[in-house]
Design a protein that fits this description.
alpha+beta, single chain, Elongation Factor Tu (Ef-tu), domain 3, 2 domains, globular, eight-stranded mixed sheet, 6 helices, 302 residues, Aminopeptidase
Length: 302
């Protein structure tokens, strides 16, 4: 999945991959879900299992760049930029590789993001990092662990999920938008009012590798404490490894739930990565395993 480009607003390739995966594999899952996708859903996918009480949100889009004029670039989301990062994109003339370059105006000091390639891309072409998968006994490393690992966790959860909803959402990395209408659908049709945000956090001075996935107490938003306390109690009762995170910045699909007209409880839960928003995002395998286990436990007991 890390090799599939899906910049915010252009997630079609990931959507098609997921729909094909669901069609091929869902017959072997414990519960076969209702699938909501296609017309009226844009590139989003909603899977409804049994009699749901909780929804899991995993965004399928990634950060990247839009070609402006000539060889100029504009960021999609918040990618880290460093000269030499390899990019790729497809336009009317086909797919090609490019190299990220930053040009500084000597007079103004203004820095302009550009690319170097054999030819100019068509105006408006989306560019993504080139995937370079690396794996050893302890770690996996590549671009777009955020949020392909969240999607992977949701797909693993789907194998055993009896009751619940899995949402594969779009545009999270660049302002959101899709969760607003999805939460309305879920609240009105299924009376759901609580969610888990299946996304990837970051290594920090308080979060380390191999100590379990993060249960976030807050980021730029503050979730309802009674719901977070309930999740922590379930994790402790089932002896799930986890770390508690407190941050003052960052966001996720939760922001649209927080601002919704319907009352939603939410909690961000995910493995932590190093080298955030670069081609070299790195996650420990124990944290991935712990993330899957924690989601399985929570979706049984919430």
């Amino acid at each position: 999945m890390c090799h599939i480009p899906a910049t915010s607003g252009n997630e079609g390739a990931m959507t098609n991959f997921l729909l094909n995966y669901i069609k091929t594999n869902s017959a072997s899952w414990k519960t076969k879900p209702k699938v909501f996708a296609g017309k009226g859903w844009q590139e989003n996918i909603v899977l409804v299992f049994g009699k749901p009480t909780t929804a899991v949100f995993a965004h399928i889009d990634n950060i990247g760049f839009t070609v402006r004029y000539g060889n100029q670039l504009v960021k999609i989301g918040g990618p880290v930029t460093s000269d030499g990062f390899l990019l790729h994109g497809t336009d009317s003339k086909g797919n090609q590789l490019a190299e990220l370059k930053t040009i500084t105006d000597k007079k103004s000091g203004f820095k302009q993001l550009t690319y170097k390639a054999k030819r100019d891309f068509d105006r408006g072409t989306d560019l993504s990092f080139v995937a370079n998968w690396r794996e050893d006994e302890e770690y996996v490393q590549c671009c777009y662990m955020d949020n392909r690992l969240g999607v992977f966790t949701a797909l693993e959860l789907a194998k055993t999920l009896k009751n619940g909803v899995i949402v594969f959402s779009t545009c999270e990395e660049h302002g959101g938008g899709s969760v607003s209408f999805i939460q309305k659908f879920l609240a009105e049709k299924y009376k759901i009012s609580q969610a888990l945000i299946c996304d990837i956090s970051w290594i920090s001075d308080g979060v380390s590798f191999a100590k379990g996935p993060v249960i976030s107490l807050r980021d730029s938003l503050v979730p309802r404490k009674v719901y977070i306390d309930k999740i922590i109690a379930i994790a402790k009762k089932n002896k799930c490894a986890f770390q508690l995170e407190v941050e003052g910045s960052g966001g996720s699909d939760a922001k649209e739930l927080q601002m919704a007209a319907y009352p939603w409880d939410w909690c961000f839960i995910g493995a932590a990565e190093d080298n955030v928003h670069t081609p070299n995002e790195k996650v420990h395998k124990k944290d991935i395993e712990g993330m899957i286990k924690l989601y399985e436990v929570l979706m049984k007991e919430l």
